[in-house]
Amino acid sequence: MLEDIYTELIAEHNQAKENRRTLENPTLTERGHNPSCGDDITLEFKIEGDKIIDAAFVGQGCAISQASTDMMIELLRGKKLDDAKRLAELFLAMIKGEVTDDSELEELEDAAALKNICNMPARVKCATLAWHTFKTMTK
Amino acid sequence: MANKFLADFPILENVVYLDNSATTQKPLQVIKAVENFYKKFNANPHRGVYNLSIQATKIYEDTRRKVAKFINAKSSSEIIFTKNATESLNLVAYSFALANVQAGDEILITIAEHHSNLVIWQMVAKSKGATLKYIYLDADGNLSEKDFAEKLSSRTKIFAVTQISNVLGLINNVKKFAAKAHEVGATVIVDGAQSVPHIKVDVQDLDADFFAFSAHKMLGTMGFGVLYGKKNLLENMQPFLRGGDMIEYVEEQATTFAELPNKFEAGTQNVGGAAALSAAIDYLNSIGFAEIERIEKKLTTYAISELKKLSYIELYGCENLNNKIGIVTFNIAEVHPHDVATILDAQGVAVRAGHHCAQPLMNFLNQNATCRASFYFYNTKADVEKFLDAIKQVRKVMHIA
Fold it and tell me: Pick from A11, A36, A123: which is nearest to B398 by CB?
């Protein structure tokens, strides 16, 4: 159970530094936090036309929240905005346990590894923070 | 390694429960007291003239007398039953402070307050144009007496302080602070949520003007709390909630209110909760606070001395154990507290992680969040050992060194 959550992949994304930075003149920026536990992130996206040309974040929180944010940033960078929104919905549906078919989740790349979080109700909000924040930012 | 209490707490068979500062487990005696009330005596107290209602009233009022004796109040009419310590403190804020604090006055609290004894004072300060001031801590986590002396003044109308911090577990010398606050004419409001379950409390000796605590942190049930207030203060206050059972005469346009304590208890009260608190007090008295303190001190001393051997553990407020109850707040280097709590949970150990409803204190400590293990008399050395073993797994699970 624990091994399914705290995988090497999560550890790598939690410790990764490349996406932890601020952008010059971001098009969109949004802060997201979980008041009950203190996860706190700020997303910065640079959009040109309908494409996300760069994305980054700063913040602090538990390994799941930080790894999930890092995975999202990597997944969405270079995507069209509409595709990115669709992927965010797919991720949230996966965490709710609504999409379980692994072939459907392939599109989420590394973020698909967070699928098992749906079995840990107390940690769902950690995994979904970045994705909800992205949704709010692009509303 | 079983102890004599465990037979009374079946829930503890399957978990090492170390979140006692949040709520304690309930012994069978308390659970049976609730069952007994609903099975045999359920009726609305204070209303009926029939036997069942008289029995329900007796359970409720006997508990009030027992609570008065337990914390050494002068009279049981100084004991108001509420939903919890938070409601007790809100009652004081709304019915006392809003009527007595004026623009330009000062409210003095400590940075170690739980949100329940903090957010209300922001409200009072804001609505009355008063200033909210904080006493900060010395390096060891204890309240700075110097800061207290500097901030207390003739403008101080309210001094609100927790007797024991729910994060650091350190015992404040309320008696000493209260005496000084009274010298400048301030009213002293004490949050006893963490003290009443763990140490002997005497509200007259402390000279608290108001004193609040919750039943569920001392073996009782959730949804039942106590406010002690000095009679002359309570008598001069307006009711907090208005409605049934708190009245004397009701006319179309005006109402006179009941005597203390009923003036502050509107609507049907939680008699099952009172039955539970009564059984909880009996249980605690049968052990005695000397024994409770001895057991908790032993567990705390052992846990802290073992944690200190681990280089990656940072402890908060754990230097001086003489002045401390069984609360151990810590962090593991490079691991977020929520991950620690999840990893401990997977090994059957329940600890709290987060800001513990004390965000200003977390800021003061420069921590986003912390882990907290809190003990009660039913915990055992074996519990602490399991906790320590689980702690030692955390960095491995997180793929750190």
Answer: A11
